[in-house]
Amino acid sequence: SGRRVRMLLPGTKVWLDGPYGAFSPDPGATELLLVSGGIGLTPMLSIVRTLHDRGGDRPHVTWLHAARCPAEDALPSLAEAAMTVPWLALVRTYETPPPGWTGACGRVDVA
Questions:
Q1: Which residues is 93 bridged to in the sheet?
Q2: C-alpha pair distances (Å), 54 with each of 7, 57, 59, 90
Q3: Which residues of the chain fall short of a pLDDT of 50?
Q4: What is the pLDDT of residue 14?
Q5: Which of 52, 56, 53 is nearest to 88 (CA)?
Q6: How many CB atoms lie within 10 A of CB 89?
Q7: Would you state the pLDDT for residue 99?
Q8: pLDDT at residue 46, rounded to an integer
Q9: Which pLDDT does position 79 carry in this prediction?
Q10: Which of 65, 86, 106, 110 has its CA 20 to 30 A from that of 55?
Q11: What does the pLDDT read at residue 3?
């Protein structure tokens, strides 16, 4: 599908910033990593919508969203929306995944 999720090796240095109250990415950014859990996806959704509405050159965006289980996922249609945005790679993780789930499992933490 053209989307990719990059895997970082242990020890890779990354730069993390914010949040500082401004939910707009640096205009020069070529890649973004958005991390949210539960209802905390609201500002991330705003960022993705803004990038979509602006058009033009967009950074590659990887969005890691965590929920306890599918029934408690704040935005079930998120995966469907991501399928129409080629510059967005959506990674969902469930603490308690449904039967047959082949995606990521567990909480988002250091491990």
A1: 66, 104
A2: 28, 9, 12, 20
A3: 1
A4: 80
A5: 52
A6: 19
A7: 92
A8: 81
A9: 61
A10: 65
A11: 58
